């Protein structure tokens, strides 16, 4: 296939570009090389074969989309989006960028689209009470967190809530500017699929890590923070009680999911849009993540659980991998305990 790949010089984009080429695909690689995502080194020395352009303003779509079978859209402004001041950045890069690209695809009759979404569209994870079944607990209060009460009780009986897997049918509850922009991107893809008509897949990445991850950009997640602490000779700092549950998926598996989605969407009927979790399918606690990274470090400093918290953090969000397994034929190959230990010494970007 001829595949146009946006965000091709990024963390996930680089791994995806390499895999697509290795699998014999013809890749048209595009990236704006935002300093916030790449640093100045990559911007000053872009990868060979990269088309440096802004998808919102591109005047070369006739050339770049010529003969393209599928567009894989990874370009985005990323990060927690914790500040309201960031809202325009997410809107102009993620919302407008996606809309402009889809409009260009429509103009040039490219009808297959795969895009990067995120677990953040869900907000909190899924919770069950043994007596009252599925429950949607409210936000955790500062008073409860100060008292070390990190788990939210059942809103009906006040009893214990257990976490459960979040599947793609779960309600969307974006809680940051970044999350809102990801929901918007999915909405644009679904609308385009109906109106163009075309076929689209949105991939909800969970916590991605692995070689090539930048050190000090919005891409840097908690695994990178734990590694940085170890490199300074400090114990990894774990917030709350370390029992928060997540899914950590290796970047090599994410690249494979991108390829699987490109293969699948090529066979979709016009008008179809689907979302998929991209995850390892092996839930881990944040405390375990810190320990796995520490195990792979030469120093091996034991993590330190602090009881500190961030008021906007969710307690648990763990994905179901079933739909991706059934419909894309994708299952992650790298177990978190192995991948996170290897990540402790993996090469990173400056």
How is this structure best described in words?
The protein has 350 residues and is α/β, with parallel strands linked by helices. The chain has 11 helices and 16 strands. The strands form 5 sheets. It has a 7-stranded parallel sheet, sandwiched between helices. A 3-stranded antiparallel sheet has the order 7-6-8, with no helix packed on it. A two-stranded parallel sheet has the order 10-13. The protein is globular and about 60 Å long.
Write the layout of secondary structure elements.
Layout: E1 2-6, H1 11-22, E2 26-31, H2 35-44, E3 51-52, H3 61-64, E4 70-73, H4 87-107, E5 112-118, E6 126-129, E7 133-135, H5 142-146, E8 161-164, H6 177-195, E9 199-205, E10 207-209, H7 222-231, E11 237-238, E12 245-246, E13 248-250, H8 251-265, E14 272-278, E15 284-285, H9 286-296, E16 304-305, H10 322-328, H11 336-343
Parallel strand pairs: 1-2, 1-4, 2-3, 4-5, 5-9, 9-14, 10-13, 11-16
Antiparallel strand pairs: 6-7, 6-8, 12-15
Helix pairs in contact: 1-8, 4-6, 7-9, 9-11
Query: What is the distance, rounded to the nearest whole angstrom, between the alpha carbons of the first and last residues?
Result: 33 Å
Main pleated sheet? 7 strands, parallel
The value of Rg in angstroms is 20 Å
Low-confidence stretches: none
